[in-house]
Every structure is written in C-alpha cells, then in structure tokens.
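Morning F.,

Quick status update on the modeling queue. The single chain you submitted on Monday has been processed. Sequence for confirmation:
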Amino acid sequence: MPDASPATGAGLGLRRVLLDQLIEAPAGAFDFLECAPDNWIGVGGPLADKLAILSSRHPLSCHGLSLSLGGPDPLDMDFVRRTRDFLERHQVAMYSEHLSYCAADGHLYDLLPIPFTDEAVHHVAGRIAQVQDALGRRIAVENVSYYAAPFQALAESDFINAVLAEADCDLLLDVNNVYVNAINHRYDARAFIEAMPGARIASIHIAGHYDEAEDLKVDTHGSAVKDDVWDLLAYAYRKHGLRPTLLERDFNFPPFEELLGEVARIRDVQARVA
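Structure tokens below.
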C-alpha cells in the first residue's frame, strides 16, 4: 500500500468521470486522491474495481457529504458504521466532513450554514464526538461557504474555533471558501486565516468560484482556481506551514492536463513558501 498520510503534497479530487485518466496518469502527477465515501459505499462492479486500483496505488483521503453534523435529526449511525468499513478497507488516513447541515426531517440536498451560537457549538461538538467515537478516529471539519447568514452571536472564526476545541477535532481549511465568504460577508480573509488554530489544520482545499458580481462570489468547483485564491493559499502556508492540499473540481472539466497543471501549481506554491 502507498504511504497513507503524506505530510505535504498536492492532491486531486477523485471523480467518476476521471477514473480512467487517473488510472493512466503518469507516476508522480499527484500525491494523493480524495473521494466522497457517500458516493462509493455499496458500489460494485467495474467502478469499484477501478477505485480499488487507485487506492492501492495512491494515498486516499475521504471527504463526506451527508452526515449533517449540524442538523436536528439523529445521526445516521448505520451510515457511520458503513463509512468506517469503507475507510478501513481503503486504508484511508484522513476523513473529513462539512461544518454544516443537510437534513431536517429528510435530506435537503444542500450544505446549509449553522447558526453561530454557543448552543450550536455544544450541539455540533457533541455530534462530532459521537462520530469520532464510532469511527475510532479523529476527523476534520471543513469551513463551508454560505450566502444567507443565520443568527450570529459569534463571529464565524470564533464559532469554528469553539467547535474544534470542544469536539477535539481537526480542521480542513477550505481557502476558496474563506475567500468567497470574505467577499460576500465583508471581512478580511487573511485575518480569518490568522484566527484559525494552526495545530488543528489537517489539510487544505482549493477550488474555483464564479464571480456573480464584484461583491458576490459563488463557490462552484466548476472553474480554474483564481489568482486571488492562489495568493491566499500562499498566505495560509506562510502563516500555518505546509499542509496536504487538494484541488477540487466537480463539473466543467477541462482537459486532464489542465487539472494536472493546477496540481503542479500547488506544488510550486509549496516550494516557494518552504
């Protein structure tokens, strides 16, 4: 098996449309891959065979979509157990989820923001602890993009820090989400990154976004990473040190070589900062 926990490096999101190209990619084109176990649990046949090939060649991290850590419904512990089986089968070193919710009396099919309140801190931290106990491992939670802001008794950075401390979990720092939120909600992106607890940052995500307007950005994962986000990534490295960093792309896929070029650019930024 490959080294399951690269200390640094540049990764690429594993999407079904990319399976054949990922298998045929030149050695060293990326350092790790990341998939959503929600999209793979229970999948068999040729797709499962291709995933097994990739996870036998490359370190695999996992980024969940549907635990609904901030939601009011009880956690789906059967799904958590099946997730644990998936992580163990593919020797996944790091598992993360979104600091959001996506279900309330049924799935809502979106990642919705949690109110930034002390009550929500306790609610979410308790659910994260429950998941960590069931999985038998620490998890990371990702700062999410949001557009409508529910009740905010705390600043977003204070809310995230409080959840991480109470749950004793790690952070997946999504730099594009920081940039998008900073524009949309008018705060300083660099100050937000400075406020994050460096010792808890397990990995980083970057992605493209859509410029709806000068003061409205939409996190889409459907375009190339913009220069302002690359600059913010370099700042995060200078502030907190290098971390494994993943390029996310979910649709509007360019030629595969362009994706590998963005992965190579992650390495270039890491090399300049190191």
